[in-house]
Design brief:
Layout lengths: L2 H32 L12 H13 L4 H14 L6 H29 L4 E2 L2 H15 L3 H12 L8 H18 L8 E3 L2 E3 L4 H63 L1
Parallel strand pairs: 1-2
Antiparallel strand pairs: 2-3
Length: 260
């Protein structure tokens, strides 16, 4: 096989991998929408953020275009109108999330090297400490900036930051152990093998069911609170209506008395 043919085959393989990653991120983006809190657009967890960073750590920087395209496609699918402002917001959001993954890749490869190598429990602690910092570079960063610019600091919404942190904390390690991963995780002289598809499925199903149960419980609590508030509001309205009726009778009686 000639050098040109090898280069072309490598380009085609990388393009296919980027396309697959983009599709996976779009799918998990819609999974995020399924896990939003009732009455809010904020999700319990953002799996795609952890998947993007984990795949980048395993496969390398060649897949960053797939992260951008996947998030851009997901953001575009949520738009209600394709005006310049909405499209610009989608591009900025996809760019920030791609930057988030690149920042995480740079930090973790600087600390652990590539392939990732843990020498002590201190390295695990470093990984955990950097998760909140990496999670800031995406929607939370835009929320913080807009809140500071408007002076509405007290009403900063931390849900997107927490959901991104949770997504990285859970799904990044899973992606590091993806089947057929080219770079294995090392602990000293020991190398941890990649997970099989069945093992990965066994891990993902309980995680998905746990978060969906959380979503269901949140919906039940929301409905109960809403019903309780509605009953209180109805009782308060009836009490106010009764008071108004009594005042009306009192005024009518006073008017009849003074007319006599």
């Amino acid at each position: 096989m000639t050098l040109g043919a090898r280069t072309q085959r490598l380009i085609e393989s990388t393009a296919i991998q980027n396309l697959i990653l983009a599709v996976v991120l779009v799918i998990f983006g819609f999974c995020r929408e399924m896990l939003t809190f009732t009455g809010s657009d904020q999700a319990i967890i953002d799996p795609a953020s952890g998947i993007a960073l984990g795949v980048l750590l395993v496969q390398g920087l060649k897949l960053w275009p797939g992260i951008f395209l996947g998030y851009l496609a997901y953001q575009m699918s949520l738009l209600t109108g394709f005006d310049l402002g909405n499209i610009t917001h989608a591009i900025i959001s996809a760019s920030l999330i791609t930057l988030q993954s690149l920042l995480g890749y740079a930090l973790y490869t600087k600390i652990l090297g590539r392939p990732l190598e843990f020498k002590s429990f201190a390295d695990i602690l470093k990984v955990i400490i950097f998760i909140p910092i990496i999670s800031l570079v995406s929607e939370p960063l835009t929320d913080f900036i807009s809140s500071f610019l408007t002076g509405d600091i007290q009403n900063i919404d931390y849900h997107s930051w927490l959901s991104t942190m949770l997504g990285i904390f859970i799904f990044m390690p899973l992606c590091i152990f993806l089947p057929n991963a080219k770079t294995a995780l090392k602990w000293g002289n020991n190398t941890f093998p990649a997970l099989s598809f069945l093992s990965l499925l066994v891990l993902l199903v309980p995680i998905g069911l746990s978060f969906y149960t959380w979503k269901v419980i949140d919906h039940i609590v929301y409905e109960d609170t809403h019903s309780l508030f509605k009953s209180f509001a109805t009782e308060a309205y009836q009490a106010i209506d009764a008071n108004i009726a009594s005042y009306d009778h009192l005024l009518r009686g006073a008017g009849a008395f003074f007319n006599i």
